[in-house]
């Protein structure tokens, strides 16, 4: 999805894809409702997150939750989400040749790709379960309340 300020950039990308004769291979899919996102991720063989910067970025985690391995740049929290050569691969920011090689490496070996997808799903289930996230938040609030109670005595 392109915001209003980025529509010219998107139009330029679409023109480049058309000029390269790649409109059947590179598809600009429409934005879909949140409840349909898992279906879109699950249809992928590999998710690529080529960001130059990222404040946090959950898309690799969402893809892995759907059993899709990831190639991501080493920005934001991606290094905390992707386990190299287990759930996907991490590459340096702005290093197109390394990213291309990483994508090629995974796509060239369907067995490895499927294994990384299974490991990605297991990694998310083991480390990013919503119950664990909720328990961590409750622990933070309890600690803050205990600190407040101790200082008001």
Explain this structure to me?
- The structure is a single chain.
- By secondary structure, the protein is mostly helical.
- Helices cover 54% and strands 7% of the residues.
- The protein has helices at residues 7-19, 37-42, 59-65, 78-81, 96-107, 110-127, 130-151; strands at residues 47-49, 70-73, 88-91.
- It has a three-stranded parallel sheet, sandwiched between helices.
- Helix 4 links the parallel strand 2 (70-73) and strand 3.
Overview features:
153 residues, mainly alpha, three-stranded parallel beta sheet, 54% helix
> Rough shape?
globular
- The end-to-end span amounts to 53 Å
The succession of helices and strands, N to C, reads: HHEHEHEHHH
Oligomer: single chain
Helix run count:
7
Q: Low-confidence segments, ≥5 residues, pLDDT <50?
A: none
Task: Please summarize the sheet with the most strands.
Answer: 3 strands, parallel
Name the average pLDDT: 93
Summing up helix and strand content along with how strands pair, one would put the structural category as mainly alpha
CA gyration radius, whole angstroms: 19 Å
> How are strands sequenced across the largest beta sheet?
1-2-3
The number of E-state strands comes to: 3
Question: How much helix is in the residues?
Answer: 40-55%
Q: In percent, how much strand structure appears in the residues?
A: 5-15%
């Amino acid at each position: 999805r392109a915001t209003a300020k980025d529509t010219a950039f998107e139009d330029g990308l679409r023109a480049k894809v058309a000029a390269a004769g790649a409109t059947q291979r590179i598809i600009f899919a429409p934005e879909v409702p949140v409840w349909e996102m898992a279906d879109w991720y699950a249809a992928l063989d590999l998710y690529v997150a080529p960001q130059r910067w990222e404040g946090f970025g959950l898309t690799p985690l969402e893809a892995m939750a759907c059993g899709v391995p990831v190639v991501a740049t080493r920005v934001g929290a991606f290094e905390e989400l992707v386990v190299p050569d287990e759930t996907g691969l991490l590459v340096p920011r702005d290093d197109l040749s390394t990213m291309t090689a990483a994508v090629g490496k995974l796509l060239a070996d369907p067995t490895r790709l499927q294994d990384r997808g299974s490991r990605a799903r297991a990694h998310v289930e083991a480390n990013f379960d919503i119950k664990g996230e909720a328990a961590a938040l409750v622990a933070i609030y309890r600690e803050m309340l205990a600190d407040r109670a101790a200082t008001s005595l």
